[in-house]
Amino acid sequence: MAHIGGDGGARGVVVRTHDPSGAPVVTLVGEIDISNAESLGATLDQLIGDETDHLVVDLAALEFMDSSGIAMLLRVAARVGTVEIRNPSNVVRRIIECTGLSDILPIERG
């Protein structure tokens, strides 16, 4: 688990686990904005390494994400073969769908 942020900026946490299929799952907790997106992205890069070809990003505990967070997810998607978004809030889901990014950041259908 990595805590990112502080000093008046957004506070975020990244937790890495695995789902039953063995795919790595990163859970983003808290907030992602311009004050911490770069640090969170660097932490994600370290957690997922170079050998990951499928990554699940769980957003169930994410309270806020601005365009910096979307840009961070796109950078991760460019490094990893497949990124799957799990449990986004309605607002995040709508942003991904309305911007036409659902092919790059597909949302898991439950």
Describe the structure.
With 110 residues, this protein is α/β, with parallel strands linked by helices. It has one domain (2-98): STAS domain (Transcription Regulator spoIIAA, 2-Layer Sandwich), CATH 3.30.750. Helices cover 31% and strands 32% of the residues. The chain has helices at 37-48, 67-79, 90-98, and strands at residues 2-5, 11-18, 24-32, 54-58, 62-65, 82-86. Strand 1 and strand 2 form a beta hairpin. The radius of gyration is 13 Å and the shape is globular. The mean pLDDT is 86.
Summarize the structure.
The protein has 110 residues and is an alpha/beta fold. Helices cover 31% and strands 32% of the residues.
Task: Quote the CATH topology.
Answer: Transcription Regulator spoIIAA
Helix content: 25-40%
**Multimeric state:** single chain
Point out poorly predicted stretches. Answer: none
Number of domains: 1
Q: What order do the helices and strands follow?
A: EEEHEEHEH
